[in-house]
Design goal:
With 158 residues, the protein is of the alpha+beta class. It is built from 4 helices and 8 strands, in the order αββββαβββαβα.
Length: 158
């Protein structure tokens, strides 16, 4: 599974680079960013800041991958307190109506956790999914720093 996923990532980078007249050195693959847009179908909401997509990477070629929404931190379903679990379920529910719909991925890059990528995800009507979650009060901006806990923050809101 990991070998196939890595192969598809490399293939995607090579195809994209060839189309742009570029050659990506193998040492730079981990740092590559695919600007997109890459057309995909949102197949499943994993949680408030991670979705699973089926992305079209070439004619007749698709890859299924988990995508972490860039710039967003949502509460975790494996919560440390009841308030966080409730907020996590609300964040996931906010995105669930989009399951099965077409989205666009931009600025796609490797994520720090294996098995997924990080990208900005856009929907025709909702716009940027991360911004939509933040605007709805279901997530907060995240720039890669150490993540803060949710339980004390949510207790203050009540």
């Amino acid at each position: 599974m990991h070998v196939m996923r890595d192969f598809l990532k490399t293939l995607t980078l090579c195809v994209w680079g060839a189309g742009m007249g570029l050659a990506a050195p193998s040492s730079a693959i981990g740092a590559e960013v695919l600007p997109g847009p890459i057309t995909a179908t949102l197949t499943r909401v994993i949680d408030g800041d991670t979705v699973e997509v089926r992305a079209r990477i070439w004619l007749g070629q698709f890859v299924e991958v988990a995508v972490r929404l860039a710039g967003v931190d949502a509460p975790e379903l494996r919560a440390r307190c009841a308030q966080e679990r409730i907020q996590a379920e609300a964040a996931a529910a906010h995105l669930q109506p989009l399951e099965g719909s077409e989205i666009a991925l931009t600025n796609v890059m490797s994520d720090k956790f294996g098995g997924r990528v990080r990208a900005e995800v856009h929907h025709r009507e909702m716009g940027a999914l991360g911004a939509s979650l933040i605007d709805a009060g279901l997530a907060r901006p995240y720039n890669g720093d150490q993540r803060r806990g949710w339980c004390s923050e949510l207790a203050v809101r009540e």
